[in-house]
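Quick one - inputs below.
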Amino acid sequence: MRVLTLSIFHWMSNVTAAILRRVGIFIVLIVCCGVLADSTAWAQPPEQTKTYTPISELPPTEQIPAARLLVAAYSFVLVAVFLYVVSVGRRLTTVQREVERLEADMKRTGRA
Amino acid sequence: MPKWFQPAAIVCAAMFAATPFVIASAPFESTMGLVFKIFFYHMPSAWMFLLGGIVCGVASVRYLFSSDARHDRTAWAAAELTVLFGLLTLVTGPLWARKAWGTWWVWDVRVTASLVSWMIAVAYLLLRRYGGPGSEKLAAGLALFGMANVPFIYISVNYWRTIHPATSVVPTLPVSMGGPLWFCVASFLLLFVLLFKMRVRLEEQRARLDAVYLSLDE
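Output:
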């Protein structure tokens, strides 16, 4: 009787261990599937192109060529600065010549 | 002209010749792409515009209190530079906005305040040119309004709802964008100093010419 009881307990412990092992494997598989599903979701390829859109159908800001605006901005700055330098230089030269001419006249006539 | 003027002018020309290469080394901004590069000329121009307004205002205050003609000449020179750099700012800004915002102009608080400040500087020059005797005091008073507008222009983007980029953009720029920007700022600052010196020199020569004519009349 005692031997029979021991053998039953032994059989039950084996069965419990087997069940626990299977449950463990199942949990590990579930976790692995979750992680894989998550990573594959991130690695989704871009959507398949079904139609080509002409550039004229883009929003207005995306149709405007940036290069022309950039060149216009830089050109305007450089040309405006150059013209201003020329303008101040010419005015300065004119006034300085006038001052020198008058001072020379004053010296010549002895009024200095 | 002082001895430092010519070497400084050569350095300034070399810096401006280098700016396209320096700007080209900066990366594109993620949403604006190529048109972002206008920022490297627009922002230094805007800073020189505000600097011109401050110099003109401070010199005008000193002239109003001291009646020293040197301060008046300084204010006049600074007002002309305010108009020049303001024009650069008000032209390059819309060229950028056309692509970035989809429109040339918006009645945004900073853009509008900048336009008002520029018009005050233009009014200053018109008053000096056509105002006749005594217009220098009136113009000095006008310059105070221009100077008072400068801090308003600067902080307006932080206090009003606006689409203009905030002041936090510049301090948070990465080195790859900030380096070229500060190089451009240094180039524009040197240009401002040189033009200012030239313009003050012109006013000094005009004052000298007036003195010579007066001595001839006596």
